[in-house]
Amino acid sequence: MANLKNIRSQIKSVTSIQKVTKAMKMVAAAKLRKSQENMEKGRPYSNRIKDLISNLIDDIDNSLLPLLNKPKNTKKHGLIIITADRGLAGSFNSNIIKKAENIINEIGHENCLLFCVGKKGYEYFSKRQFNVAEYYEDLWIGLNYNKAINLGQNVIEYFSNHKVDKVDVIYNYFKNAGSQEVLKSQILPIEFKNKEDDTQLTDIIYEPSKIELVKSLVPKYFNTQIWQFLLESFASEQAARMLAMENATENAKEMISELNLEFNKARQTAITTEMLEIVGGAEALSN
User: Fold this and answer.
1) Separation CA 49–CA 284 (nearest Å)
2) 114 DSSP assignment
3) Phi and psi at residue 225, in whole multiples of 5°?
4) Of 193, 164, 168, which is closest to residue 182 (Cα–Cα)?
5) DSSP output for 4-60
6) pLDDT per residue as tens digits for the range 174-227
7) Which region holds residue 243: left if phi is over 0, alpha if psi is between -120 and 50, else beta?
8) Which of 49, 122, 166, 222 could cysteine-pair with 116, CB 3.0–4.6 Å?
9) Of 117, 119, 115, whose CA–CA distance to 85 is shortest?
C-alpha cells in the first residue's frame, strides 16, 4: 500500500506540472503571434533604409559620418549579448551564451566590453568576472522603440568616446516557429555595400543634399537595426519557449501513462497477494 500511495502522489505531482507547462505553452503561443507580426513588419523597413543609404553612399565622404568611421586599429571590441530574463525556453539562452563565450575567448577577455540585454546573459558573465560594461535590466517588460533608442545611444557613446572600436550583436534570428539561428552581426562601424548597376537612380535630384539625407538616415538605420535585433530575439524566445513547453507537456503525458501502468501493476500485485493470504489462511483453518 505504501508503494501505491507513493505512485499516486507522483501522478498527482506530474499532472500539476503538466497543467503549468500547458498554460505556459499557450501564453508563449499568444505572445509569439504578436511578436512575430511586429518582427516581420520591421524587416522591410530596415532593409529599405539600408538600400536607400547604399544608393547614396558612393558620393559621400565617410569621414563626415562618425558612425561609419573605421578605426585604424581595432583593439577594444563591444559585444551586445541579447538573452532572455527567464529560462524554460530550451537551449535559447545557452546557445547565445556559448556563442558569445567562444567569440570572447578568440578576441581575449581584456579586449571585450559586454553590453548585456537580458538577465540570463548578465548573470552568467558577471559571475565569471567578464567585463560587463552595461546591463539593461527589465528591457523586455513593456518592450518598445524608445528602449531600443536608449540602448543604441548608450552604445554610440562608447563608440564615439573610443571606449570600443567595433560593436557586434549576438542574437537569435527568427527563421520560423520551430527554428532559430544564433547570429553575430556587426553594428558599429556601420558598413554599407555600394549599389552597382543602379542606373535608374542617376538622374534623381535630391533635396536637401545627399549628405544631409544620409546624415539623417544613418542614425535612423542604426536605431532601427537595434530595434530589429530585439524583435527578432523576443520572437525567437517565445517560439523556443512554446516548443519547450510543448515537449514538456508531452513528456509529462508519457510519464503519467507509465506511472498509471505501474500503479495498476502494483495494485494487481497487492490484490493477488491479499487473495493468496486469504486462501492460505482459509486452508490453515480447515486443517
Assistant:
1) 95
2) E
3) -65, -45
4) 168
5) HHHHHHHHHHHHHHHHHHHHHHHHHHHHHHHHHHHHHHHHHHHHHHHHHHHHHGGGS
6) 988 888 899 999 999 888 776 555 544 555 676 777 788 888 888 889 999 999
7) alpha
8) 122
9) 119
- Location of C-alpha cell 498554460: 23
The answer to the question of residue 231 being in a domain is yes
**C-alpha span between 238 and 146 (Å, rounded):** 21
Q: Is 105:52 a contact under the CB 8 Å cutoff?
A: no
Residue 45, pLDDT above cutoff 70: yes
Tell me the three cell numbers of residue 175: 527563421
Give residue 15's domain range.
Answer: 2-19+246-286
| Same-domain check for residues 206 and 261 | no
User: Which is nearest to 230 in space by CA: 157, 146, 165?
Assistant: 146
What's the one-letter identity of residue 186?
Q
Q: Is residue 163 part of a domain?
A: yes
Residues 6 or more apart whose Cβ sits within 8 Å of residue 191: 68
Closest by CA to 82, choosing from 95, 65, 63, is 95
pTM over 0.70: yes
Residue 26 lies in a domain: no
Q: Examine residue 177 and state whether it is found in any structural domain, yes or no.
A: yes
Residues in the chain: 287
The dihedral through the CA atoms of 119, 125, 126, 132 has a sign that is: negative
239 shares its domain with 99 = yes
User: What would the grid cell of residue 1 be?
Assistant: 500500500
Given the DSSP bridges, would you call strands 179-188 and 166-176 parallel, antiparallel or unpaired? Answer: antiparallel
Interatomic CA distance for residues 33 and 8, integer angstroms: 38
DSSP state of 73: S
Question: Do residues 230 and 142 touch, judged by C-beta distance below 8 A?
Answer: no
The secondary structure of residue 179, as a DSSP letter, is: E
Question: CA-CA distance, 198 to 200, in Å (whole number)?
Answer: 6
Q: Are residues 9 and 78 in the same domain?
A: no
